[in-house]
Amino acid sequence: MHTAVLALLISRIPLILSILSSETSLLWKVSEAIEDVKNKLIIMQSVLIDAEKKGAGSEGEKAWVATVTDIVYDVEDVIDKFMYQISRERIGGRSARFLCHTIYVPKNLWERHKTASKLQIIKNKIHAIPDIKRYAIDPNMASSSSNHRPNLHHAESHLFLKEDELVGIQEKRQLLMGPLMDGEPERTVISVVGMGGSGKTTLVANIYNNGDVRRHFDCYAWITVSQVYDIEDLLRSMIKEFDSSWKNSNKVYPEDLSSIKYRALSERLVNYLKKKKYLLVIDDVWDTDLLDYLKAPLPDGCPGSRIILTTRNEDIASYHFWGKPHIHRIKLLEKEEAWILFCKKAFSSSPNGCCPPEHESLAKELVEKCEGLPLAIVAFGSLMYSKNISQWNEIHNSWNWSLSNNPKLRLDDILSLSFKDLSHNLKHCFLYCSFFPEDYMIRRKRLMKLWFAEGFVEQVIGSTPEEVAESERYLEELVFRNMLQVIRRNEFGRPKAYKMHDVMRDLAVSISTRKNFGVVHNGVEEMAECKARRISIHTNKELRSFSGVSKLRSFLVFNKLETLPSGIKMLRVLDLANAEIVELPNEVVNLFNLRYLNLKGTSVKELPKSISRLLNLQSLDISDTKIEALPREIGKLKNLQYLIMHSHNRNSNDFRIVKGMLVLSKICRLTNLQSVSVIEARGDLIRQIRSMTQLTSLGISNVKAEDEMDLCGSIQGMTRLRRLLIMVTNEEETLRMDALSSPPRNLQSLVLVGKLEKVPQWFSSLQNLTFLYLHWSRLEEDVLPQIAALPNLVRLSLNNAYSGKQMGIHTGFPKLTSLTIRNFPELNEIIIRKSVMPKVQSLYIADCMELETVPKGIEYLKNLQELILESVSMQLKNRIKGGVDFAKVQHIPKIYMK
């Protein structure tokens, strides 16, 4: 559990030694002691790794691990406090030379003396620990415990498979489809009840995503509730889900609902759903109060509407939310179904996915112990993947089969085995995911940056932490083991967002609390003391002061917190996204160890000049705040890697899709910066960025036509660039980029905002481009023939990009899955030839009032799953609603018209 902390400490001890090696420190005779501490920690690290593989069994082993853990944290505190004190003196001007290139040694040697004394005490504590050999884990046992990593190629390919938890689902689905689609005019509530991990959500999701089901209703929405919820937030989510036309426009929801309260939100839903046949799924309901709150916003008199709720509680399933509910009780898998599901997980690499004969007897015995619970079977199957027969026997023999017959206890036991089988790095990564609220959509980039800041991703010379995490498949392995679930993917199927199954999260929270790794504060109990190193705040109650805050390394907020507790000094992570703060708390600029600062969505108006004190900051997110400019002092943050600072425009038809931010300092000084979005081009900024060849993501606004040579020269040298956004000063300004003779070869995403005189010739060389967005280009020539041959283009979005009357898609687009055509005032005809866009699944057409017929050839798009029409002519709508064009579109599962 604590080996990652040890690894970090061991790597930092030589830096401390370099400070303590002066003549004065030698006088204290501490150098040998520090070296001894380092050597002892290395031994402890190896034993702790073995302990994590096997699990401490005896009370003696547990006591030894606990003692070592305390010492590890003591050393961490000493080093971090030492660095903190030195940084304060350096800021005050009392300095001599750098520590780790950023920290000066104070002229006054008092802090060195205190540090040496504390480390000497720690050395004595280490010597007082009972002989390590007495409690060291048997290496044979540790190695046979198989801290085994699944084949990474298999783990990666697993992400692209359809859910195989659907074994035995056909019969269950038919039972629900009856009351869902029976045509009864009365609104009907269907309750699906079962224990955690029984497959309730999987079953309902399979039905919810069915094309026939979606065509049966005018609109539909899915909201997840969980134990802690805010009714107004749920109503806001419901409005956005029902009004789904905005989702394919690559925009945030076009209206800010945050200030609208319960009554107005309820009225909005009533007006929207009036006379519509809607389907609403309310997932994971824990109390009947929620159902009472939802009675007002959900209007009756909507013939044929259906509400499905999932719950673990029989009383909630039987509650008369609206009339007598249809109750569907989830049955666990039959023996044969359980075996099929297990084999799909455990033996997917075997011929035909069959169980080897030497494993069959033992495997069937183990599967039987799962008692038909899908989550247990899936987790257990993933655990046993690629293990040999001796490892199977060991797990069988070590499993505590004497547990009670409570299925919840058995499930916990199985999931605990999955946790123990993780590498020590992945253990930390997994537990960190539990700090997010139940059913929270955990975005991949945010999670990775948090892991980087905590040091969970090992450092490799010549590689960024992101590259290491990608190469080691951190997230893919957690998904393969069913410890994380993918809930959103990009156009290539690569995961963009995850969530934890609530049962898996319960396990992680329990382990995290027990090991003092971190604690989730949800307001159920007042906190008097925090022994953990990390805390995640989920309650809206006033946060009272509690002891232990000085030891915190991570502080995450998922409520409307307005103030921070006093005494926080050693934080590495401070995540205040969407907190109700209007200015950066004074304590923050003193957090010298801070690596990650997230202020996204807050009302902060400016960053203080003292932000320059955060010399170790790696990631700064101030997107969607009220900050308009970064102070000059930002240029002192030499370790900054990610600078996210744009604000979205909610109106898709405006010219300015994002708002950039002014940087007053020389941004080129930030030599470690990898990603920046979006920065205003003022002064010589475009020339400055020429030297920033390390960038992988760049967004620039306020570009002018005369910037062409500087802009193209700078971009051409950014060989690592993957994402690029360029926006001109206003809609009359011309965007000139013809001088770019050789664009970055790895460019995957390109967004151009501004008038183009012609399609740039270099477009044809964008062989790795997957996403192209042209906004306000107003080209006189049809852009489609110029980009049709791009081999990897998957998403294409055109907004006021063409001024012609006819658009022809005659060839190419072999991988395109999503096409958006928006705000074409003159367009009256779209022609699609046969065999083009063979993989397109989504077609979104909006604000094209002259278009009176569906695209000619739309019937050739056999894989088209949805057609969304917004702000189009009534003639076009009427031709689809049973008119002359109905036959051309009847193969499309979802047609949405607004």
From TrEMBL:
Residues 16-94 form the Disease resistance N-terminal domain. Residues 436-508 form the Disease resistance protein winged helix domain. It comes from the Eukaryota. It holds the Pfam family NB-ARC. Keywords: Nucleotide-binding, Plant defense, Repeat, Signal. Residues 176-349 form the NB-ARC domain. GO terms for biological process: defense response to other organism. GO terms for molecular function: ADP binding. Residues 551-869 form the Disease resistance R13L4/SHOC-2-like LRR domain. The keyword Repeat applies. Residues 1-18 form the signal peptide. This is Uncharacterized protein. It comes from Quercus rubra. The lineage of its organism: Eukaryota, Viridiplantae, Streptophyta, Embryophyta, Tracheophyta.
